[in-house]
Amino acid sequence: MNKTELLQKCCTDAFAGTMTFLETIQNMSTINVRWYSANLIFGMKTHYFDGGETIQVKWPENTPPVKTLPFNADAVVAALRAIQQKQIIYPEFIRQIAEAGVVVYTVHLQGRKANYLGPDGDFYVEPFPQ
Fold first, then answer.
1. Do β-strands 44-49 and 54-58 pair in parallel, antiparallel, or remain unpaired?
2. pLDDT digit string, tens, across residues 119-130
3. Domain total for the chain?
């Protein structure tokens, strides 16, 4: 499986609820993804590699937010805890963080953290679960 196919599989399986965040990160590590950004407005992820290579993957389902909402870090945290505890799967997570005002999030594999960004520069940083 080439890089693009693996990244597409990670995305498809995440939306289907058959691949967890940590499994996704493990798969991405095997092909040396350094970090990625998920754009909730465009419904796609852009994966970045050390050598400057990028690969974009469109989401299998995309319902972008109709309007930009105020950023609510507490609601972002609640969505994170719900998905970590397997109470929801990825599409519901996306819906909840969009309602919390997130427009983009970035995941940094080597830095082991994710940044959730609002439209006005507000943000929440979540370390990877242990």
1. antiparallel
2. 999 999 999 877
3. 1
